[in-house]
């Protein structure tokens, strides 16, 4: 199946990297000014850099786990068995495109969609599968945030304004998802055709139905388990970044602060993954008792490994997309016979 490689303008990439650096630097400068540069310098001087190795370990877990999620999502319902090295190429390339191409995350989605098309999936199937695998990962995220909020509220380790929204919103979303994925509604709403709004609804409902089907299979359980490792790896990285400055809170408030700060990254705006999530996570940490200067430096240490280092190999892999595409087409030859999304819905 022919699917042209996503076009990535290196001028836009360079612009995105420059703006990301400026935004991140501006956020650090503003928060550093609020914390007091003298206190920031003193905290920095007293840091223990050995903990940075744990930040690196956490990010190895992050990308290894997401690679496993991608493999399982491709394999589900008749997809090919994808080698881990090839899945990692797609994951890192998509990550770099998402972070540095100023398109509100659309560039990363384009890489993921292109890869699924190269693997032999039809247009609708590729879109549903891409949305479905991301929905599964964020379902795990929501459940972890809800659990952290519940435990923090019971232990009095976080303010109610930080915990109650999690405790209310997540159950409402789960009930709504179950209602939308009732088999009768899926049959009515997931049929293709109609206006662009009707087609968008059909793809969204089909993706939710894809997740519901997947979670009762071995591939779906693998996605959920690997999604949990993905989030835990990133939390470990943040914890280690704070340990550099001897400021890590307990596991429950850390998880709640991490999840609350990360919500800022879900807003579909260009480059919000840099300054926005840095600021949100920093102030979320102060809400659970971490001093502002230590929270700022811990987040910066974490983001060095979570954002800047993975971008470098990711950009190299974006440049090598034609070679990745040829490997994906070879992997498509191993595709098993199975039920595609259109038949399943």
Structure, explained:
It is a single chain. With 345 residues, the protein is mostly helical. The chain is 77% helix and 0% strand. The protein has 15 helices and no strands. It starts with 9 loop residues before the first helix and ends with a helix. The C terminus is likely disordered.
Task: Please give a handful of descriptors for the protein shown.
345 residues, mainly alpha, 15 helices, 0% strand, globular
Per-chain topology:
Blueprint lengths: L9 H26 L1 H9 L6 H24 L8 H17 L5 H13 L4 H33 L4 H21 L2 H7 L6 H19 L3 H26 L7 H12 L12 H13 L4 H28 L1 H12 L8 H4 L1
Helix pairs in contact: 1-12, 1-13, 2-13, 3-4, 3-6, 3-10, 3-13, 4-5, 4-13, 4-14, 5-6, 6-7, 6-9, 6-10, 6-11, 10-13, 11-12, 12-13
* Amount of helix: over 70%
SSE string, helix = H, strand = E?
HHHHHHHHHHHHHHH
Q: Which of globular, elongated, flat, extended, rod-shaped describes the shape?
A: globular
Number of helices: 15
Report how far apart the termini are. 23 Å
Radius of gyration: 21 Å
Show unreliable segments.
268-272, 336-345
Supply the helix-strand structural class.
Answer: mainly alpha
Mean pLDDT: 83
Strand content: under 5%
Biggest pleated-sheet summary: none
């Amino acid at each position: 199946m022919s699917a042209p490689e996503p076009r990535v303008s290196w001028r836009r990439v360079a612009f995105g990297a420059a703006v990301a650096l400026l935004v991140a630097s501006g956020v650090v400068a503003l928060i550093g000014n609020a914390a007091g540069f003298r206190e920031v310098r003193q905290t920095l001087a007293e840091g223990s850099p050995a903990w940075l190795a744990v930040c690196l370990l956490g990010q190895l877990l992050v990308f290894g786990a997401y690679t496993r999620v991608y493999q399982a999502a491709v394999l589900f319902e008749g997809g090919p068995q994808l080698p881990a090295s090839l899945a990692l190429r797609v994951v890192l390339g998509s990550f770099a495109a998402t972070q540095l191409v100023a398109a509100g995350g659309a560039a990363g989605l384009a890489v993921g969609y292109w890869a699924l098309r190269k693997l032999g999936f039809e247009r609708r199937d590729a879109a549903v599968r891409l949305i479905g695998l991301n929905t599964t990962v964020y379902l795990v995220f929501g459940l972890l945030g809800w659990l952290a909020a519940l435990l923090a509220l019971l232990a009095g380790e976080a303010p109610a304004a930080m915990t109650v929204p999690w405790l209310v919103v997540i159950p409402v979303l789960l009930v709504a998802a179950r209602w939308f994925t009732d088999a009768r509604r899926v049959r009515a709403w997931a049929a293709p055709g109609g206006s662009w709004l009707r087609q968008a609804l059909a793809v969204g409902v089909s993706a939710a139905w894809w997740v519901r089907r997947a979670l009762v299979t071995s591939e779906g359980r693998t996605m959920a388990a690997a999604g949990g490792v993905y989030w835990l790896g990133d939390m470990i990285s943040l914890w280690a970044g704070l340990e550099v400055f001897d400021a890590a809170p307990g596991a429950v408030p850390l998880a709640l602060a991490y999840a609350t700060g990360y919500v800022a990254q879900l807003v579909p705006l260009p480059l919000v993954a840099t300054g926005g999530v840095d600021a949100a996570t920093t102030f979320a940490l102060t809400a659970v008792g971490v001093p502002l200067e230590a929270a700022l430096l811990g987040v910066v240490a974490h983001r060095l490994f979570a954002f800047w280092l993975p971008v470098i190999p990711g950009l190299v892999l974006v440049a090598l997309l034609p070679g990745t595409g040829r490997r994906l087409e070879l992997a498509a030859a191993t595709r098993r016979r199975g039920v595609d999304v259109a038949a399943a819905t």
